[in-house]
């Protein structure tokens, strides 16, 4: 009762406060409602208050009503103003049809838009004098001006006189042996089965194409799992252009017409990328346009027009001192208007795989500039071919700048000499001496000496019986002497900006401009580099060089026989270069893998060649790798065996293709991994399965592991014995110290005094108990009766006494045995191998899976298709169907087909990626495998490395 009275006032006050908060918090309109009413009533108060009605308050403490205030001033009509155009950088500009005057407005979202910004749909693009377009952008509640830059054609730094251009051959094509087999007429049942497979393949294509149309139209790629899009290839609709000819071949004419109309919207003069990948752009876009234009009957001129527009941009990448291209072309005018050499470390495939597309464009347009560009590359490849560490092949990286002196003299005017056929006596020695062969079938084989005279009789002849005359070369390029360039002006730093760490734009420092090729001092005029050596050479003096048919090399070798076909056999050097390289490939790269069933197949590995020591040959070693990219080699060897009359190479082609089929069959998914390693046999004829050798390769440290275990056990036993001796000694001491002994114990006050003294004197001496007793003191306190009490009384004097009592000393901690761990018993050799095979999911014969993913690659089915068309053997169709079913089953999604992470799993994960070559190559080769042999016949068409068919000359 007492406590309730104390707090009753506080309780009453609390109830009043709660009621007040409820009344004012729920019945009155919020300040946002009042603001809205005020705006609607132009400042007048409301006349009626709304009735109070209880409603549950929201559980989340946040505003749920929209702040909607009408501002009358915003309704006043105002004239929209566009930002003033940005003053262009002054430089000489040669306006062409691709300049800004003829450009259409850039679509929303295309161009250089800052991170987090979006182009306003109502903003009108403002063209600039130099081809740029200004857009108003809004991002992060701030208004800024963002520039969309366009490529413009500028004056060439190193022009080639018209009379020095290497012209396309115009003579009639030479007779070339037939490639395709003579097929038998199929039965009715075979036709039904074949057409059923065709429809299944077409349905897969249509599902992927629909996913691209719905989610990534005019973008490079669709992400088939999430329905997103991405633009890795400049954002020019790579999948759309790449799949044009496939649409036509499959008879999807309506989709083809729709895609052709969409092509007009592609603007090749601008991209969000700072550089244009020359190789990928050439094979996908340029090859896609040219093939679609020709295969559709040359009726869609827009396709050829777009090809020429793109080619004008790509040809600008060749404007270097030695006319070798910048394989990653920095196209922006402020950078491109200055001189740049080619790279001193280029990838072989990226510079050697441009020939077919530029040649075909030259054939369709009659413009020799495009053929001249790639013919010079071919000349330099020819000159470098026999001067590498592995003569006959090129390393994956080399120097193409022409600005570095090399330790050999390249004579590009002297062609390589075609060797005697493989296996003939003396062909290896002849190859070393640079001799070629008279190929006239009516005369015996004779070698021609380097000066053109015959070493035995007669003269050297070409395959048509005429004397072999090298292709005439133009005059050497005239390099502008190193000196000031009066027309060049350094760009402002403001033109080189990028997002800083806080999201703002930051200009680079002068040293960053210098690293990009600009002088550090703006007052110093720019000078052109002087590069006197036009040829190729090693990219470095030391380290190992890689020689392979796989990635970074593949299509350079592939294009040699195909370019020979595209030129109608009129340029003999492509045959010569191929045959020289083929012999080196067979000798140094191809190997037979050791397999449990003794399968007679071939793989193509890597050859690593180290720098040469004085007086010693180049040390080299084979890496027994087989990659999915390398699977194209079966098709290459197959067509070359036919057109160059090399029947033994056809057996090699079949074994290489069979190696890819085996690689598909070996995994849980039925799909070949990106790359794996096996055991290379020393002989291709005799290669028995050797399980002991295979186990030793999988477990090379078996003996060492056992030896280390034995040493560890010896050390463990020594430590264990030492620890046991120490522990016994400690236990003995512990037991002795624990035995009870008589101990003098002091009693009474003396004992207390002694204990106190020991505490003060650190137990080093005993006090005098009599002198230590406290002296009597006077009573100074108050007595109880009078309000006082005694504070202190004299102590009772006690004499010290000593008693002998038996009591143990304080107990010590029992010793603990040291922690000594025994070494783990290792797996024996056999168990170790079995465990590794199981954990890494290694097929027998495979020693390591280097890359487990599958990205929808076409190279395996490509060679299978070539072998079917060349041999007519139905086995290749059966193998191809197993491959197709395995791929589709493991990669299909709702919006297409996706790359997977691990082909050795029974249920791989989808990587949400569908590259354009899935529609351009993989599905096209599957479809052609079950088409009639006359559909895109190899005797009429030749395919580029992206499976785009170019018509052969007749």
TrEMBL record:
Disulfide-bond pairs as recorded: 631-660
Transmembrane annotation, as ranges: none
Molecular function GO labels: calcium ion binding; mannosyl-oligosaccharide 1,2-alpha-mannosidase activity
Binding site for Ca(2+): 945
Family matches, as Pfam families: Glyco_hydro_47
InterPro entries, per database record: 6hp_glycosidase-like_sf, Glyco_hydro_47, Glycosyl_Hydrolase_47, Seven-hairpin_glycosidases
Pathway membership: Protein modification; protein glycosylation
Source organism superkingdom: Eukaryota
Claim: Hydrolase is one of the keywords in the record: yes
GO CC terms: endoplasmic reticulum; membrane
EC number from the UniProt entry: 3.2.1.-
Active site: residue positions: 280, 554, 674, 859
Entry keyword annotation includes GTP-binding: no
Any one Gene Ontology BP term: ERAD pathway
Keyword terms of this UniProt record: Calcium, Disulfide bond, Glycosidase, Hydrolase, Metal-binding
Cofactor dependence: Ca(2+)
Region called Disordered, residue ranges: 474-497, 517-546, 770-795
Family: Belongs to the glycosyl hydrolase 47 family.
Protein name per Swiss-Prot or TrEMBL: alpha-1,2-Mannosidase
Organism per entry: Didymosphaeria variabile
């Amino acid at each position: 009762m007492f406590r309730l009275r104390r707090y009753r006032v506080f309780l009453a006050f609390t109830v009043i406060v709660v009621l007040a908060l409820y009344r004012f918090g729920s019945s009155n309109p919020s300040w946002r409602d009042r603001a809205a009413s005020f705006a609607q009533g132009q400042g007048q108060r409301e006349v009626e208050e709304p009735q109070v009605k209880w409603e549950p308050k929201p559980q989340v403490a946040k505003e749920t009503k929209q702040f909607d205030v009408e501002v009358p001033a915003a309704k006043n009509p105002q004239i929209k103003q566009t930002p003033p155009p940005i003053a262009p950088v002054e430089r000489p500009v040669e306006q062409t049809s691709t300049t800004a005057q003829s450009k259409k407005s850039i679509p929303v979202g295309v161009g250089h838009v800052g991170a987090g910004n979006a182009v306003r749909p109502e903003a009108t693009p403002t063209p600039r004098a130099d081809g740029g377009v200004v857009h108003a952008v809004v991002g992060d509640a701030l208004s800024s001006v963002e520039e969309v830059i366009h490529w413009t054609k500028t004056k060439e730094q190193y022009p080639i006189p018209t009379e020095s251009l290497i012209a396309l051959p115009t003579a009639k094509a030479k007779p070339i042996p037939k490639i395709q087999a003579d097929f038998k007429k199929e039965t009715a049942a075979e036709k039904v089965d074949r057409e059923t497979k065709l429809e299944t393949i077409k349905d897969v294509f249509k599902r992927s194409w629909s996913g691209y149309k719905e989610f990534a139209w005019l973008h490079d790629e669709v992400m088939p799992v999430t329905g997103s899009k991405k633009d890795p290839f400049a954002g020019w609709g790579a999948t759309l252009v790449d799949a044009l000819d496939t649409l036509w071949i499959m008879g999807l004419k309506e989709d083809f017409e729709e895609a052709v109309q969409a092509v007009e919207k592609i603007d090749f003069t601008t991209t969000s990328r700072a550089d244009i990948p020359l190789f990928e752009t050439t094979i996908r876009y340029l090859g896609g346009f040219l093939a679609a234009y020709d295969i559709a009957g040359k009726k869609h001129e827009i396709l050829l027009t777009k090809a020429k527009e793109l080619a004008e941009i790509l040809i600008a990448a060749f404007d270097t001192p030695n006319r070798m291209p910048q394989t990653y072309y920095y196209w922006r005018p402020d950078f491109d208007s200055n001189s740049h050499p080619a790279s001193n470390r280029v990838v072989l495939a990226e510079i050697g795989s441009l020939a077919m597309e530029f040649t075909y464009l030259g054939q369709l347009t009659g413009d020799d500039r495009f053929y001249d560009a790639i013919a010079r590359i071919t000349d330099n490849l020819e000159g470098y071919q026999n001067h590498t560490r592995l003569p006959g092949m090129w390393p994956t990286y080399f120097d193409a700048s022409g600005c570095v002196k090399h330790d050999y003299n390249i004579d590009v005017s002297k062609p390589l000499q075609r060797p005697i056929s493989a296996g003939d006596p003396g062909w290896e020695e002849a190859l070393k001496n640079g001799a070629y062969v008279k190929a006239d079938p009516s005369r015996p084989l004779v070698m021609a000496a380097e000066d053109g005279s015959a070493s035995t009789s007669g003269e050297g002849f070409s395959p048509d019986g005429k004397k072999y005359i090298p292709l005439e070369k133009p005059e050497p390029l005239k390099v502008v002497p190193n000196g000031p360039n009066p027309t060049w002006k350094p760009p402002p730093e403001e033109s080189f900006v990028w997002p800083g760490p806080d999201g703002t734009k930051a200009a680079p420092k002068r040293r960053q401009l210098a690293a990009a090729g600009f002088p550090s001092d703006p007052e110093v005029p720019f000078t052109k580099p002087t590069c006197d050596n036009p040829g190729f050479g090693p990219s470095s003096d030391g380290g190992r060089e890689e020689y392979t048919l796989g990635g970074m090399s593949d299509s350079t070798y592939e294009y040699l026989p195909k370019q020979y076909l595209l030129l109608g056999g009129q340029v003999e050097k492509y045959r010569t270069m191929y045959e020289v390289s083929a012999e080196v490939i067979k000798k140094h790269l191809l190997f037979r893998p050791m397999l449990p069933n003794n399968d007679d197949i071939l793989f193509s590995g890597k050859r690593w060649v180290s720098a040469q020591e004085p007086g010693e040959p180049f040390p080299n070693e084979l890496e027994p790798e087989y990659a999915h990219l390398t699977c194209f080699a079966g098709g290459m060897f197959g067509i070359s065996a036919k057109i160059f009359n090399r029947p033994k190479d056809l057996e090699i082609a079949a074994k290489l293709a069979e190696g890819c089929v085996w690689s598909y069959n070996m995994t849980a998914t039925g799909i070949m991994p990106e790359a794996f390693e096996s055991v290379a046999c020393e002989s291709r004829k005799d290669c028995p399965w050797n399980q002991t050798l295979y186990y030793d390769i999988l477990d090379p440290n078996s003996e060492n592991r056992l030896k280390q275990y034995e040493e560890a056990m010896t050390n463990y036993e020594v430590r264990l014995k030492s620890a046991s001796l120490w522990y016994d000694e400690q236990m003995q001491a512990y037991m002795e110290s624990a035995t009870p002994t008589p101990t003098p114990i002091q009693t009474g006050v003396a004992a207390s005094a002694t204990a106190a003294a020991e505490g003060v004197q650190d137990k080093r001496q005993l006090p005098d108990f009599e002198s230590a007793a406290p002296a009597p003191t006077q009573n100074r306190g108050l007595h109880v009766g009078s309000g006082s009490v005694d504070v202190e009384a004299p102590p009772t004097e006690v004499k010290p006494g000593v008693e002998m009592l038996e009591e143990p000393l304080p107990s010590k901690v029992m010793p603990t045995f040291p922690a000594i761990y025994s070494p783990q018993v290792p797996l024996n050799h056999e168990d170790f191998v079995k465990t590794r095979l199981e954990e890494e999911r290694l097929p027998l014969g495979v020693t390591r899976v280097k890359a487990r993913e599958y990205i929808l690659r076409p190279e395996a089915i490509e060679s299978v298709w070539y072998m079917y068309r060349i041999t007519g053997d139905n086995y290749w169709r059966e193998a191809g169907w197993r491959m197709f079913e395995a791929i589709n089953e493991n990669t299909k999604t709702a919006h297409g087909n996706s790359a997977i992470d691990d082909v050795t799993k029974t249920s791989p994960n989808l990587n949400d990626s569908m590259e354009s070559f899935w529609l351009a190559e993989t599905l096209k080769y599957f479809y052609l495998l079950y088409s009639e042999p006359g559909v895109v016949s190899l005797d009429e068409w030749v395919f580029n490395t992206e499976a785009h068919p170019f018509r052969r000359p007749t």
